[in-house]
Automatic annotation (TrEMBL):
SUPFAM superfamilies: Acyl-CoA N-acyltransferases (Nat), SCP-like. Homohexamer; trimer of dimers. It comes from Streptomyces luteoverticillatus (Streptoverticillium luteoverticillatus). Residues 1-154 form the N-acetyltransferase domain. Belongs to the acetyltransferase Eis family. This is GNAT family N-acetyltransferase. Coiled coil: none annotated. The active site is at Y124, F416. It comes from the Bacteria. One of its GO terms (biological process) is aminoglycoside antibiotic catabolic process. One of its GO terms (molecular function) is aminoglycoside N-acetyltransferase activity. Keywords: Acyltransferase, Transferase. Acetyl-CoA binds at V83, G84, V85, R91, R92, G93, V94, L95, S96, S119, E120.
Length: 416
């Protein structure tokens, strides 16, 4: 079997092979190839697996993203996608060979973080990826959408009973405001740990899912008191159900204003908020907490560390301390020489130093579990209790929880 990078000449073969792997057929390109979910792929970052006689049997690719880390650092990250193997060649090691080839290539490029969205949970852990952000759907019945009066003194509306929040909401169509959405999203993703960039190429080609894709959407655009756009909700109505693709804002008050707007929509029975941040207080803001029903509570962004010291020193930290991590990376090291590194992580004043050490470890963990705790969305103690991380002394898990926490829960909306 041969695994080789693709060129622009391989585009049709790559796309056909990928779709065949999933039992689908490519859409007919329109507008020069724009508007297709795969139209923003980067051919120089894609791989084809071929039989000895040159027949394509597998694909893998990556996008060039920026990932926002705790503390606001923007780190380059390879967004792995387009992974598929023809049904006729599964269970023959093709996927493992492509993933090893890809990860070795990412390291050779000097990249230290890789991310993906997993189509099935069990697949990617064996390649060193761990789920690091989580998402859910929140459904609110329109007839139970009343908001409670805030009880905290000084809260907007607490003294007057008014629902009014500073700013205004304007209704637009997604086709009318692409540049505004791009700008608002970019401000949002720079402030939210776990968020990914949406490169200009995506917006230009209308690649991905709404509101980037050309599929019609209504946009509830929030403007601040000075008229500057600072948030939006993308939605459509289907059979009396208002479905929100995504709600984008850097301020909880703006998210609340947008929620009030869609929950006040006439002639709908319920509102479904897709990709709602698990920690957002909207359910507490409702007069009836039970009116907000949670579903599709699942993993979203998976993280893979390719260079442990670089990755750990790149993010921000919010407590001082020292921790010795014994990290196992069996996939890249191989069964006979499993790559294992013991690192002393020292955090002072929000910055970390990470160096090899011979000290006794505080925690022993697989690189996939380090990926899960990296953004602060999974507590190390949870994985200790689950039997995945080994704590070598009673205080180790609590110390790791303190060090790895984030300034804000990580959340990712972007689909790729």
């Amino acid at each position: 079997m041969e695994i080789r990078p693709t060129t622009d000449k391989d585009l049709d073969v790559f796309v056909d092979t990928l779709h065949a792997a999933f039992g689908d057929f490519p859409q007919t390109p329109a507008d020069g190839g724009g508007g297709l979910w795969w139209s923003a792929l980067e051919t120089d970052r894609c791989l084809l697996a071929l039989t000895p006689d040159g027949r394509p049997i597998g694909t893998a690719g990556a996008y060039s993203f920026e990932l926002t880390l705790p503390g606001g650092t923007l780190a380059p990250a390879a967004g792995v996608s387009f992974v598929g193997v023809l049904p006729s060649h599964r269970r023959r090691g093709v996927l493992s060979a492509m993933m090893r080839h890809q990860l070795d290539g990412l390291r050779a490029r000097g990249e230290y973080l890789s991310v993906l969205l997993a189509s099935e949970f069990p697949i990617y852990g064996r390649f060193g990826y761990g789920p690091a952000t989580y998402t859910r759907q929140l459904t609110v019945a329109r007839g139970q959408a009343a908001f409670a009066l805030p009880r905290a003194r000084g809260t907007a509306g607490s003294d007057t009973g008014s629902d009014a929040l500073t700013g205004s909401v304007e209704l637009l169509r997604s086709s009318e405001c692409g540049e505004i959405l791009e700008e608002v999203y970019d401000r949002y993703r720079r402030a939210r740990p776990g968020a990914l960039s949406r490169p200009r190429r995506w917006w230009d080609l209308r690649a991905g899912q709404p509101p980037i894709a050309p599929t019609p959407r209504h946009i509830a655009l929030h403007r601040d008191a000075d008229g500057v756009p600072d948030g939006y909700a993308s939605y459509w109505v289907d059979s009396g159900i208002l479905k929100v693709d995504e709600t984008i804002a850097t301020d909880d008050a703006v998210v609340t204003a947008l929620a009030r707007f869609v929950l006040g929509h006439d002639l709908v029975t319920r509102v479904e908020f897709k990709h709602f941040p698990p920690e957002h207080p909207l359910r507490w803001q409702l007069a009836d907490f039970r009116a907000g029903q949670v579903s599709d509570d699942t993993d979203w962004l998976w993280v893979r560390l390719l260079d442990v010291p670089r990755a750990l020193t790149a993010r921000g930290w919010f407590a001082d301390g020292e921790l010795v991590l014994d990290v196992d990376d069996p996939f890249l090291g191989g069964p006979s020489s499993a790559e294992r590194g013991r690192y002393l992580l020292t955090v002072r004043n929000g910055k970390a130093d990470c160096v090899p050490t011979d000290r006794e470890p505080d925690l022993s963990l697989d690189v996939r579990d380090l990926g899960s705790v990296y953004l602060g969305g999974t507590a190390p103690s949870t994985l200790v209790r689950a039997g995945h991380i080994h704590a070598h002394h009673p205080d180790a898990a609590a110390l790791a929880d303190t060090l790895f926490r984030s300034d804000r829960a990580p959340h990712c909306l972007h689909w790729f």
